[in-house]
Amino acid sequence: MASTPSPDLILEPLSLEGEGFPARPLSEWLTTFHLASVVLDPYTNESSWILKTAARVLHAFSGAAVRTNLIVTASADETRTFLGPLAKEFLVFTDPDRAAVKSFGLSTLPALVFVRSDGTIPAAAEGWNPGEWRAVAKAIADVTSWTAPAIPGLGDPTAFAGTPALG
User: What number does CATH give the domain 24-152?
Assistant: First the structure.
């Protein structure tokens, strides 16, 4: 069950080709926009099965007042390898010690988590359950006055439970 994360949680963005943002506390990432995060464990098949779906869902919110991102439970090099070209399409945070996973109160990955600018988590889905992800997308769309993507979409995998979030 997702819980309100610590505003002091440090989120470290993946640096690409020497460019990037410095690591900052969650509270600073929320000063202008909410966060829509897909949390992935690159060491599991289940997180790889959802990559295309995650990208589609996050792209659907690219113009909304929400900072779309991926949080990957791996080092920077492992994250780049796992995401491939997606590492350049999204803001990506590395979480090798799973501090974000713990602070968000996640028990299963992959997960879709909506963090409002006040630091609360009004909606989260763990594992891949299209109905639950649709509810999170609707919550994001309602708060940002945007249109939620269709979930499930063509080519999305069938529902699966996911894997333990803490490895």
Answer: 3.40.30.10
The DSSP bridge partners found for residue 112 are 38, 125
pTM for this prediction: 0.96
Specify the residue for token string 């909410």. Answer: 34
Q: What are the residue ranges of helices labelled H in the chain?
A: 26-29, 45-49, 51-60, 76-83, 86-89, 99-104, 130-144
Cα angle: 99, vertex 104, 109; to 5 degrees = 85
Whole-number Å distance between alpha carbons of 145 and 68: 15
| pLDDT tens by residue, the chain, 167 residues | 788 999 999 999 998 666 667 899 999 999 999 999 999 999 999 999 999 999 999 999 999 999 999 999 999 999 999 999 999 999 999 999 999 999 999 999 999 999 999 999 999 999 999 999 999 999 999 999 999 999 999 999 999 999 999 98
- Any bridge partners for residue 33, and if so which? none
